[in-house]
Design goal:
Layout lengths: L2 E5 L3 H12 L3 E6 L2 H8 L5 E4 L5 H6 L7 E4 L4 H13 L5 E5 L21 E3 L1 H14 L3 E7 L4 E7 L9 E2 H7 L6 E7 L2 E3 L6 E2 L4 E6 L19 E5 L3 H10 L4 E6 L2 H10 L4 E4 L5 H6 L7 E4 L4 H13 L4 E5 L3 H7 L5 E3 L1 H13 L4 E6 L6 E6 L23 E8 L2 E4 L11 E6 L5 H8 L7
Parallel strand pairs: 1-2, 1-4, 2-3, 4-5, 5-6, 14-15, 14-17, 15-16, 17-18, 18-19
Antiparallel strand pairs: 7-8, 8-13, 9-12, 10-11, 10-13, 20-21, 21-24, 22-23, 22-24
Helix pairs in contact: 1-12, 5-7, 5-12
């Protein structure tokens, strides 16, 4: 059990606090809004303190002297920076994680370093979301795409098309059709309910299927699409932190147009980008979209800070001929309403929380991703110890006594990807890619990966 202080009781802070509390940690949350804390008390059984997170007296009241970690996720970067600095310099808290939104704090060109403010790790929502959207665009047909083990392992989720060649067939038949493609189906969601598949599992239309493979073997994704054509044209709505970063990442491989209503922002973005066409206009202007060839756009990405504008512009783009739409939407109530009208709906909160959980839970957990269905998660863990000090080293996967809600997808050993089967023996330093249908099982998994005292 860790003693953790969370600075900020917003959507991310409260969600992280609840998840870490459910994991069995001792959580204290600090916020300067009394109403926020009153609302939290009705939902979460944690200690709360009203006050400014940068005040030493407030951190002292949260028992910072005996704290293992702080997570700074207030709405202001400057508060997060100062709070982490205070927690280190005055209370010597071992680990400090801060969420920073402004690109100036992330750009090495300006000489800013995390240790200026005693931060161990920075969580940047704009960079996380940029990577998330780019992964989806790089894997046509996917509604989720993420990487493990430094990109060696790819996980792609796609909805099976009624006319597609996978529809109505057993997984074993799929393997026969693509004998040289090493791909593992690690989870299927049917009507939002999970299935851990085997060779006899039949894939049905509208199933949401999670595939795991190396990048080389992900070429089979064309099987799930109506066409084998790769995307070329991307239109981005919004030139803020996410929009400008996304254009920068995409413009070397795609034809990119970016629309931004603010004239000054448009000018600044245009100066920083190379080949992206920057348009100073309203993203919901039908005449503009028509003149800029919306019917030939493969991906329309609405990434402004306005949920309603992202929804409206995505729906308009879809109606006018854009092949796929991606929208960043903060409010969960909005996401539920438009999930069937917009091809890919992304929650900034979920993406940020996944990264925070990877930083917080244990040093053995490298990365965590939410699957977007209930409490399901995918995570990467590192195995330590030997057969004497570890509960899992030297054992076959079939001997691990995993909960029914846990499925091992792959083992990465010395940069080699091994798609999991029950006969694989676990070795020290293996990276295990694992899927949990219920994140409450994380504490059981962590105990399995712990080494006995004396290993270090």
């Amino acid at each position: 059990m860790k003693k953790i202080i969370v600075f900020g009781g917003g959507s991310v802070g409260s969600s992280v606090a609840k998840m870490l509390s459910d994991d069995g940690n001792d959580i204290t949350l600090i916020d300067n809004d009394k109403q926020v804390l009153e609302n939290l008390k009705e939902k979460i059984d944690i200690k709360t303190i009203h006050g400014n997170a940068t005040f030493p007296s407030i951190q002292k009241a949260a028992d910072a002297d005996n704290c293992d970690m702080v997570i700074a996720v207030t709405g202001l970067d400057e508060v997060n920076l100062s709070a982490c600095h205070i927690s280190k310099k005055i209370f010597n808290i071992p680990r400090r994680v801060a969420r920073l939104r402004a690109n100036d704090y992330l750009n090495n060109d300006y000489g800013f370093k995390n240790d200026f403010f005693s931060i161990n790790e920075v969580i940047s929502p704009s960079l996380l979301l940029t990577d998330y959207v780019k992964n989806i665009i790089d894997h046509p047909g996917a509604f989720q795409a993420f990487q493990f083990a430094g990109g060696l392992v790819q996980v792609v989720a796609a909805t099976v098309l009624k006319e597609g060649p996978l529809s109505g067939r057993k997984l074993s038949e799929f393997k026969k059709d693509l004998p040289n493609v090493d791909v593992k189906v690690i989870a299927i969601y049917r009507n939002k309910k999970p299935i851990f598949p085997n060779g006899d599992t039949v894939i049905l239309p509208e199933d949401d299927v999670f595939f795991m493979a190396t990048e080389k073997n992900m070429r089979f994704m064309s099987e799930l699409r109506m066409t084998s054509e790769n995307p070329h044209n991307v239109m981005i709505a919004g030139g803020g932190n996410i929009g400008s970063a996304l254009a920068n990442r995409l413009e070397s491989n795609y034809t990119v147009k970016l629309i931004e209503k603010d004239k000054l922002i448009s000018k600044n973005v245009a100066q920083k980008l190379s080949s992206t066409v920057v348009l100073n206009n309203d993203i919901a202007d039908e005449e503009l979209l028509k003149n800029e060839g919306i019917e030939s756009v493969d991906y329309f990405c609405a990434v402004t800070n306005d949920d309603q504008m992202n929804i409206l512009s995505s729906k308009l783009a879809k109606e006018m001929g854009a092949k796929k739409t991606i929208a960043i939407i903060n409010r969960s109530s909005y996401r539920n309403l438009v999930s069937k009208e917009i091809d890919v709906v992304i929650s900034p909160e979920d993406v940020t929380i996944s990264s925070l959980l990877a930083s917080v839970r244990t040093s053995d957990i490298v990365s965590v991703f939410s699957l977007g269905f209930g409490d399901a998660e995918a995570l990467e863990l590192i195995v330590h110890g030997d057969s004497k000090t570890s509960k899992i080293v030297g054992k076959k996967i079939s001997e691990l006594n995993l909960p029914d809600t846990v499925n091992i997808g792959a083992v990465v050993r010395k940069n080699k990807v091994i798609l999991a089967n029950t006969d694989i023996k676990i070795e020290s330093d293996d990276h295990i890619i694992m899927f949990l249908l219920d994140k409450k099982d994380i504490s059981k998994v962590e105990k399995m990966f712990q080494v006995e005292v004396g290993f270090f």
